[in-house]
Amino acid sequence: MAYPKDYRYTKEHEWIQVKGNTATVGITDHAQESLGDIVFVELPKIGAQVEAGKSFGTVESVKAVSELYAPASGKVIGINESLNQSPEAVNQDAHSAWMIKLELADAKQADALMSADDYEKYVTEEK
Amino acid sequence: MSSTAEGQTLRKTALNALHRRLGAKMVDFGGWDMPVEYPASGGLVKEHLAVRTGVGMFDVSHMGDILIRGPQALDAVQWISMNDASKLQEGQAHYSALLYPEGTFVDDVIVHKMGPNDYLLVINAGTREKDHSWVRKNVGRFRCHADDVGDYYTQIAIQGPKAEATLQKLTNVDLSQIKNYWFKHGTVCNLPNTLIARTGYTAEDGFEIYVPSDVPTSERVWNEVTEAGKEFGIVPCGLGARNTLRLEGKMALYGHEISDTINVWEAALDRYCKMEKADFVGRVALEKAKAEGLKRILVGLEAVDRGIPRDGYKVFDAAGSEIGYVTSGSPAPFLKKNIALAYVPPSHSEIGHEVFVEIRGQKVKCKVVPTPFYKRPKKL
Lengths: 127, 380
Prior knowledge:
Strand order of the largest sheet of chain B: 10-11-12-9-3-13
Number of domains of chain B: 2
Number of domains of chain A: 1
Strand content of chain B: 25-35%
Largest interface: A-B, 13 and 17 residues
Shape of chain A: globular
CATH class of the largest domain in chain B: Alpha Beta
Largest sheet of chain A: 6 strands, antiparallel
CATH class of chain A: Mainly Beta
Order of helices and strands of chain A: EEEHEEEEEHHEH
Structural class of chain A: alpha+beta
Strand order of the largest sheet of chain A: 1-2-3-9-8-5
Order of helices and strands of chain B: HEEHEEHEEEHEEHEEEHEHHEEEEEE
CATH topology of the largest domain in chain B: Gyrase A, domain 2
Number of helices of chain B: 8
Distance between the termini of chain B: 38 Å
Structural class of chain B: alpha+beta
Shape of chain B: globular
Radius of gyration of chain A: 13 Å
Mean pLDDT of chain B: 96
CATH architecture of the largest domain in chain B: 2-Layer Sandwich
Low-confidence stretches of chain B: 1-5
Radius of gyration of chain B: 21 Å
Mean pLDDT of chain A: 95
CATH architecture of chain A: Beta Barrel
Oligomer: heterodimer
């Protein structure tokens, strides 16, 4: 699956799409593929503060629990509640099954993350 | 499960290269490089459901096999295992366990009576060396040999309601005549004298076949089973599905529900332990443990609130006191519930009793439920 060019990517396999001073966050197709069948997503409450590089929730496959790391700092202004009922949406289309929306503390913070091309190179090397 | 020191070479089954060609995700399981799931054919959940509703196949060649032969083979088996092997007829198998003098587990085993003086013990992968040296030591005073024959066989498990129809295409043995936990020898994939056992570790109907462990033969048999099962949607299944399947069926896994610190009564395996037969290793300690009463017992839990109890998580009572721990916990793909096995005091083991499993700092409400969680439908 192609990595959207307008997203930025972390080494921990999250994506972030920045629009002005807000952003949408999810996990990458590579992440969902290595996790396997996703059965549970635990997200923060609206209003919570998240910090770049720190855990903001967890995603669970049948076999394992993985932390979700925030690509940027900010305040949670939206969570994808449909993932409570259908966490498998992340397996089906990781790049549209978003997890949280953020009001960014610093709209430029995500610029330092990997571009789609760099991320693709990164996961190829990781394999 | 034992872990392997870094850098040490993992052992491989004869089907290792084939698993890799199928794109399996591989893991270190008890020192073996084994497939955990096959994403290309759908992954863990699909594999699990295939076994419940159709058919799936597993490479279980990492399992160990010990052959005990000689004029006193039965006496030796009776001494080293807790079930009553004198009740077995030729061609029959049963679940049993090897115990320490403390009444705790060396391992659980399937004992097959191959002939009057000939027993095959199928043991766990991670405990092969330990089991074998323990068996050799303990059968020493009987006139018999105990040989590790695990490397001679590729063991393939074909499991699911369509297992019989799949395997029947490849053998001259009338499989409908093999009852659960019985076995026969016959030709499978043109290999004469092949052991075909109606056994498994999935709580589903199915067979395990034992074929020569050279790579060409192993791959040929695997491919023929794949072809035979195609019309029933057969999929290769990894250790991930094997674990969730056995958990739904409340089958013990060494290092989880049973170990060298857990005794037979705690593990609730009473019906496989025959105290009235002749003496066996662990019997004296078990008598004493029974008289003293249980401090903990294995129960089935189902999460009532949102959350997945997993191996090692702590269990609390309603008042907030820690009372036990989860031995195995997972989403159950067929039952679509989050289930667990846990040790708790007998006072908290009643069906319907509420307990709390701590999941990342949150106490998640669970209730004690009847086990096995899953029981396969009876055949008509």
